[in-house]
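quick one, 447 residues, struct below
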Amino acid sequence: MSRSRIAAAAACAAVVATSVLIVTGSASAGTISGTLYRDPDTAVARWLSANPGDSRATVIRDKIASQPATRWLSNFNIATVGAEVAGYVTAAEAAGQIPALTVYGITNRDCGGASSGGAPDLTQYQTWIGNIARNLGTRTVVLNLEPDSIALLTCLNSSEIAARNQALRTATQTLKAANPNAKVYLDGGHSAWNSAGDQASRLVAAGIASADGFYTNASNFQPTSAEAAYGRSIISALNGQGATGKRQVIDVSRNGGASGDWCGDDNTDRRIGQYPTVNTGDANIDAYLWIKPPGEADGCRYAAGSFQPDLAYSLASTAPNPPSSPPPPSSPSTSPSSSPSSSPSPSSPAGSCGATLRATSTWNGGYQGEVTVRAGTVATSGWTVSWTLPAGSTIAQAWNGTLTSSGSTVTVRNVSWNGSVPAGGSTTFGFTASGTPGTPAVTCTSP
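---
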């Protein structure tokens, strides 16, 4: 197994989380606009559900499980992958957000290393890709196609490289033809691996002309500044080879600390990087993503793709808190109403806090809500907001607060970093729900 390769995640386990925080933004520069989808069905969510009293749980919940990481399609199963993709994409669209998938099933993936597997042959691979493509919907979806597949070719002979390049070209064209709004990115390696000129030539051979661009640093640790510079060099080289208009995606899931050797299982100097967003401020960069879900192993000390709480805690323990406010809800990948379907529902701040609920956007069968919590004449050291959902309404997910439900009664409590609100000050949390908003009465209490 090459020590210069990236380590890729294996399959994610399915589980529903009870507390989430979505922190992404509308695009500034780049070509993607909207909010990234935080998948509630992840390995970290299952661990949190099973270990609520663990001393590491608060940090892991607030700084990792709260964030949108990509869903890996790494179990090669032709019969079920279509349903998996359809369920994920439909859930993201219902939330008014952008799904991001990492497709990882190429034949002879990882050159037989810790994340080996994939399709038995390239014919079956294309069938698998076709089943993915048919379930992508029609709105924006981000697809990171086959980590390692272009930067790591040491185990392939010339004819096998040519066959892989053809497979990647065909896969890209299949995905784009099925959903013209799909954003497809190819493997760009990372800044401490192949030269930019070499990587650009490999990308051209693999069909980047049909793709939207390339991603770098997947499952690796190189600083964002180094990756952005590397990406600019690749783009320049691509332009020189006639592949113009391509943009970069950077995996920032683990690049906030030490770089160096490829494996993160044994290095306690790794840290999560910046939080995921499409608001990059760089015209060359479409998104900063968490391609590798933080806390999932590389295959050195633990099985590749398995969630390890000690790794997650090490990555997150000294990281800054996420931004406390959710992004604007509008996105070209959805068709929400631009006007709220209900007026604010206030509660009186006569006590130590008050709360106001409003619908910020609606779509067919659902809506997004925002609750503003205001302190009264004294500061709060914590807050709890409750209301009764209208008939037929259920909450799918919430952010900036811990959600519990009992029948139609919803209760949201502050998370660790937003319970203290100064006198006269405010904070917000948000949620997405099915049904219609209504105008429920909202109560707020504070110790």
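The longest strand covers residues 353-363.
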